[in-house]
Amino acid sequence: MSRLPSHARIVIVGGGAIGTSIAYHLAKMGEKDVLVLEKNQLTAGSTWHAAGLMGQLRSKVNLTRLMQYSADLCARIGAETGQDVGWKNVGSLRLAASDARWEELKRAHTAARSYGFDMELVGPDEVRRLFPLVDTAGLRGATWIASDGHVDPYSLTHAYAKGARAGGVRIVEGVTVTGFAISDRRLTAVKTTDGDVGCEVVVNAAGLWARQLGELAGINLPVTVLEHEYFVTEKSPAVPDDLPTLRDPDANFYVKPEPGAMAIGGWEKAARAAHGLGRLPMTFGQELFPDDLDRISEVIEGAASRIPILGRLGVRSVVNGPIPISADGEPVMGLAGDYENFFVACGFTSGIAASGGAGRAMANWIVEGDPGMDLWAFDLRRFGHPHGGLAYLRDSAIEAYSKYYAIAWPEEERSACRPLRRSALYQTLTAQGAVNGVKFGWERPNYFLRPGEARPPLETFERAPHAGVIGREHRLVREGVAMIDQSSFTKFEVSGPGALAWLQWLAAANVDRSETAVVYTQLLNRRGGIEADLTIMRRGEARFHVVTGSAFGTRDGGWLRRHLPRDGSVAVQDVTGAYGVINLCGPLAREALARVSEDDVSNAAFPYMTGREIRIGWAPAFAARVTYVGELGWELHVPTEYMAYVYQVLRAAGAPFGIADVGYKAISSLRMEKRYLYWGADITPDDTPLEAGLGFAVAMKKGDFQGRDALAAQQERGVTRRLACFRLDDPLPVYGGEAMSAEGRAIGMTTSGDYGHSIGAALVFGYLKAEDMGLREIEVEAFGRRSRATLVDRCAYDPEGKRLRM
Ligand SMILES: Cc1cc2nc3c(=O)[nH]c(=O)nc-3n(C[C@H](O)[C@H](O)[C@H](O)COP(=O)(O)OP(=O)(O)OC[C@H]3O[C@@H](n4cnc5c(N)ncnc54)[C@H](O)[C@@H]3O)c2cc1C
């Protein structure tokens, strides 16, 4: 008789820390018909050999909250399930051995304080008191998180499993999932070595083999496998029993205390993909790779100079195991592809530390339809087709891995797998001095250097090194005419007899306007949260050109496709590659365009927020009178093959007006002055348009639309938080993530920040809670420096919007 039921509502594939935690949390939510399938035995993937460090602090509030929950759960799950998990709440130190690192830790400290996470800054003496084996020479200080610790990954997984079983979950070991039955957008059954199981939901928690499991459903998950190694020292009476965990990112190593010994690992530069391309065979069992201490020699040397006793302690054992990792080093969670019921939770490099929070978020996602908090940094949809190949994954994951402890310089760009996606203007702009950044595989000009101008250093927290160049580009947009290559915008063509009615239901704004209307809108979830922020350009009765950010193609495209009516009356096609985009902007933009277009581009004939087909020289273009910079301008959507020509023609036409190229750094400064928001930072699924001050873009009277009920209820109650803009007295380097305080208490964190070159001041956005909404003055802290900041009503530049409508 088969050990498997013929049907289970939810099938989780993988019995590691992640799969069992999801099962545990589903059981807690009352889901009884849950089946966990494990090809070997529980923990047999990456989990059994993990060191078990539990660090909670992450770069974003929600990610820290997720980790905090994990640590809280570790502290109580033993008592709840009767399975001791070896939780040792010993605290953690993170050392700073350089000024820059110290700056980074101080910034993390103020950010943590702003959302109530307990963490201290300590000096070298306190470091020595807490970890007496450390040589404090050259140390600037450290952070101390008393609530951190370490856990036994094997026991923790068994505790999740025990709790899950107690809630009715079935866990079957020794069964491999070999395929799926698929119908339309749903997986209807899992095929296994023990027969088929019908199902309503499948969860891919297959860790090291998650990619292969995805392939069984035709999905290329952006996850691979690298080797990761730590060694355990010999025991010595000189090693105290009550050591905390320790990380020395400048020397690239971590320490987990063992009884009378230490486990030491790190994130070596010479990282290696498992089995060449990062693909483990399915037959790989509860195994390790051969020891390779040479590979981590830099880690060993760094550790030995910071903890001198290591030079005298021999190595007792080495663990060189496979570690799952994604293209950017962060986990991958969410719904896969266009499937309605195939969830993934994989690519965890800290899957023990994340397991509790990730398990709860996934259970929420499955049962409630969303993870319960914005998890964009972990969301599968931040990746797309550029990230799917094994070679790409190997190279990008190795870079992410080897920079795990590197200082996150705000201006630094990834360097692996570049240049990959290039606009039709790439060569031209490179020849003109473009300094590129990268977004979703696209090379995009950050700014342009003139001949003889040196490339500014990026390893700094200051904006100053290239502020002059950005200021120059900013002013060109405000005073003259500029071209910005925005070809990386994601574009969708939405068409069909049902397109208008469908968009009316999906969008918060009124899309049913004239056939030349350009509409700025948000797509909302049922809670009224902002899932997407985009522009819908009508190109005919039943044809729309939908434009969204470069990195949001997978996410917004998935949202659109998932909501498509089943009657085939609407089609959605990604046309990103078919069109390049030149943003021609600035008060002299019309003068330049009029010289080369046979169409009437006057304000009367071509008003703000309209779009139409025009000719530029001999070439066709779809021109939309909209920009993200707050000046007169057109986004010119040009069929790719005409791009080089159109650029040349515009450049010649604009020459008498001083036309020049401008990059994305100037856009950032320009949009802050106009209070134009950025999805993923200022607006997320956790925020509604009313909270974000986007009520002007919501058409409550147009009839029903997704999210309308939630907004109506919020309107009735009144918002309890609101996005505000503040202008700083001092030009601190602000990027978003700075602590905001008032009257001596923390009131939140900024969502964005930049220097506004027209107004000559730094600006930040941030949400104020109900009790703080009356504040007109706050303090903003960046890298240990504070500035008074005053509320900006509406926006800092051209609040009437007159310059847009000239
Ligand atoms: C040396 C080392 C040290 C580490 N130290 C730490 C640490 O200190 N802290 C920390 O947080 N993390 C650490 N990690 C990372 C941690 O091990 C992983 O993040 C975590 O184990 C991932 O858990 P998982 O459940 O996602 O995957 P896995 O543990 O790989 O579990 C996946 C399971 O799915 C099963 N499976 C796969 N395919 C199928 C299939 N087709 N059918 C049925 N079953 C299938 C596998 O057998 C496996 O048991 C370390 C990793 C290494 C290598």
Q: Rg, please? A: 27 Å
Please describe the biggest sheet, giving its number of strands, its sense, and whether it closes into a barrel. 8 strands, mixed
How would you classify the helix and strand content by structural class? alpha+beta
Oligomer: single chain
Low-confidence stretches: none
The proportion of strand residues reads 25-35%
Total strands: the figure is 37
Number of helices: 18
- Approximately how much helix is present in the residues? 25-40%
Small-molecule components bound: flavin-adenine dinucleotide
Cα(first) to Cα(last) distance is 78 Å
Q: What shape does the CA trace take?
A: globular
- Give the rounded overall mean pLDDT: 96
Characteristic terms for this protein:
about 800 residues; alpha+beta; 8-stranded mixed sheet
Can you characterise this structure?
- This protein is α+β, with helices and mostly antiparallel strands and 806 residues long.
- 25% of the residues lie in helices and 29% in strands.
- Strands 1, 2, 8, 9, 10, 11, 17 and 18 form an 8-stranded mixed beta sheet that branches. It has an 8-stranded mixed beta sheet with strand order 5-6-4-13-14-15-12-16. The protein has a 6-stranded mixed beta sheet with strand order 28-29-30-27-21-31.
- Helix 2 (61-81) packs across helix 8 (351-368), helix 11 (464-479) packs across helix 16 (664-674) and helix 14 crosses helix 15 (643-654).
- It is globular.
- The protein starts with 6 loop residues before the first strand and ends in a 14-residue tail after the last strand.
- 53% of the residues are buried.
- It binds flavin-adenine dinucleotide.
- Flavin-adenine dinucleotide binds at residues 13-19, 37-40, 44-47, 49-53, 176-177, 205-209, 213, 228, 230, 319, 321-324, 346, 348-353.
